[in-house]
Design brief:
Layout lengths: L4 H10 L5 H13 L17 E2 L5 E5 L7 H4 L7 H12 L20 E5 L12 H17 L5 E5 L1 H13 L16 E2 L7 E4 L4 H4 L6 H15 L3
Parallel strand pairs: 2-3, 2-4, 4-6
Antiparallel strand pairs: 1-3, 5-6
Helix pairs in contact: 1-5, 4-8, 5-6
């Protein structure tokens, strides 16, 4: 039996089968596997959030990677995006180690919680608007249970949009003009948690230099400063 509300929510997330397209895809990937991981058992289920229950910083991503979290069972674990992110979290003092390859490798976060707007790996890494909206209540409940949160770091425009929807679900309509995403863009009107934009640590961004380690370090430092204001 779950021993806490967060664990109960995790169990509910893991058992979800609400989106047929995502269920079919995540399970097919887990059966067919990538050649490099042919000897591994894939998770093949929705991915719950992970981190420090007393987190002041929420890191919000897009969705699990097909051969990353969908394989390992933990958000951002086992892929290049996670390698880039966890190294930065370790440099910032928010993680106890700079790498993470599987869910039982000892990684622990301090003051941070990582989650995704959509909990199942989507085809082509592109959830539909309907899938995004179906998943939203999980994040609404999750943020409600993380009572020490002070800032949301949005990894990419999709996560920024999801955070604005989270804000609306919490009873704070999105203002017009709609706040625009950008790296280190900030939206904070005092009504809900401040939002801080950060380019997603995808290979498309990190291999091209659109997001550098220094840029991610700067965004995390800003998030930490924001989280310590109150």
């Amino acid at each position: 039996m779950p021993s806490s509300p967060l664990e109960a929510l995790e169990a509910e997330i893991v058992s979800c089968r609400a989106c047929p397209r995502l269920v079919e895809w995540r399970e097919r990937v887990a059966r067919e596997k990538r050649a490099a991981f042919a000897d591994q058992e894939y998770w093949g289920l929705p991915i719950p959030g992970f981190g420090d229950p007393a987190a002041r910083i929420l890191i919000l991503g897009l969705a699990p990677a097909a051969h990353g979290a969908n394989r390992t069972g933990r958000v951002f674990t086992g892929d290049r995006s996670g390698d880039f992110l966890f190294a930065a979290l370790h440099r910032a003092g928010l993680a106890n180690q700079p790498t993470s390859v599987h869910a039982a490798d000892g990684l622990a976060l301090r003051g941070a919680w990582i989650t995704a707007a959509v909990r199942c790996a989507p085809p082509a890494n592109k959830p539909t608007p309907e899938e995004r909206d179906t998943c939203l209540p999980f994040a609404v409940r999750e943020t409600g249970l993380l009572r020490e949160l002070r800032v949301v770091v949005c990894l990419g425009a999709f996560a920024w949009d999801a955070a604005l929807r989270l804000r609306a679900a919490a009873g704070h309509p999105v203002p017009r003009p709609r706040p625009r995403f950008g790296h280190e863009a900030v939206f904070d009107d005092g009504a809900w948690l401040p939002l801080l934009g950060c380019f997603h640590p995808s290979q498309q961004n990190t291999f091209t230099g659109r997001l550098t380690p220094a840029m991610l370090d700067s965004a995390l430092a800003r998030a930490m400063a924001t989280s310590n204001r109150t």
